[in-house]
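Dear colleague,

Thank you for sharing your sequence with our group. We've completed the structure prediction you requested, and as agreed, I am returning the results in plain text so they can be pasted directly into your records. Please verify that the sequence below matches your submission; if there's any discrepancy, let me know and we will rerun it promptly.
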Amino acid sequence: MKMRTRHTKFIATLSIATYFMMPSEQSFADEKLPNIAEPIFHSATTEAELALDRAIRLSDSDRNAIDFLAKRPRDNSSDERYAGIFTSKLEKAWASEEQSLVQSECGGRYLDGEICGLDYNPFTCAQDFSENGYRYASTPARRSDAMIVALVWPGIDRMVATYRMVRKGNRWLVDGVRCEGGRDFNMK
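Please find the predicted C-alpha cells below.
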C-alpha cells in the first residue's frame, strides 16, 4: 500500500507542476510553480477546499446539476442553490462547450432520446460521484486571492480534476476546472 501512496503523490505533484508550467492567457499567466514538495491529499480543511467540497457535494446530490451547469433549457427553480459558487467566466465556458456540442452532434437543437451536449458533469469531471468522499491538495497561487486545488477520489490512483478557486470578498468561488485527461473550462 505504501508504494501506491507514493505513486499517487508523485502523480499529483507532477500534475500540479504541469498545471503551473502551462501558459495562460488570463491574469494567471505569470504564475510560477510554488515551492511544494509533495502534496498530501486530505479531507477538505482550508477555506477554498471547504467551499469546493460543499459545491461538489451539492452537485452530487442534484440530478439536474448538468442541466444547470450547461445552461440547458429547463426548470430554473433550483438555480439559487448555485448562486455564489461559480464565476460567470466559468459558467460561460461550460455553456459555450454545451452549445458547441449541441451544434456539432445534433444540428444545434436538442433531440428527444439523443445525447446532444455534455454527457458528464463538467464540474466533477465524471458521470458518477465518489461514495467515499473526496480528498484535496491545495497550492497557493502567486496572487493572494487564488488557490489551485487538486482532487482525488479515495481508491483511485490518479487525480480527477484540478480547480482554480478565487476569493471574491469573503467567499471562495470556483473559477476554472481542468478535467484530467479531458477538457479545460476557463483554465487557459
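Summary note from our side: Strands lie at 135-140, 146-152, 159-168, 171-179, 184-185.

Kind regards,
the structure core
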